Amino acid sequence: MQANTIDKNTVSSMQVLSFVLDGDWLGVEISGIQEVLEYRQVAKVPRTPDFMLGVINLRGKVIPVVDLRRHFQMKLAEPTVDSCIIIVHVEIDGEETPLGIMADRVQEVVEIAVEDINPPPRIGNRINGAFIYGMARHEEQFIILLRLSRVFSADELHKVLEQTVESPSAITAGLSQVALED
């Protein structure tokens, strides 16, 4: 999320896509989102970090998909009819790269006044505070605003991308198998 660069003197609000993960409402600024997809089978890729579910084929492009539940060390759950993949853009070596993140369900796009964004509490968060830009209240829910640029380290993202490049035959076989199952 690019919100860490918001200047409260020039911007009065931001739009956030809210989604649910293990009962928590999380949010990502919409400028970093490409699209939201219904959950689809993910092709496994060998020798990738445990938080990487695999890859999907999106209009001819191979997109890595990660499980934030694993990365945040939350209780794991099987995908449901509400599960979805949010395609976001993360910066790797100065280049925007698409990455899919699993969500239990997408809620809505919310307009949040910048002055209503509070720093995360120092204790009591299940998510590492370095990953959080802030917290905002929307209706009866608190939305944890993620800083995607910090959620995954450059090394972690390089490992994910390297494996998707180095294992083309495994990916092709996996994507073919997924296509047969769909």
UniProtKB/TrEMBL annotation:
Coiled-coil stretches: none
**Natural source organism:** Bowmanella dokdonensis
**What Pfam families does the record tag this protein with?**
CheW
Q: Name one GO biological process term.
A: signal transduction
**Cited Gene3D superfamilies:** CheA-289, Domain 4, SH3 Domains
Name by which UniProt lists this protein: Purine-binding chemotaxis protein CheW
Q: Where is the CheW-like domain?
A: 13-157
Under the heading SUPFAM superfamilies, the entry gives: CheW-like (SSF50341)
Stretch forming the signal peptide: none
One Gene Ontology cellular component annotation held by this UniProt entry: cytosol
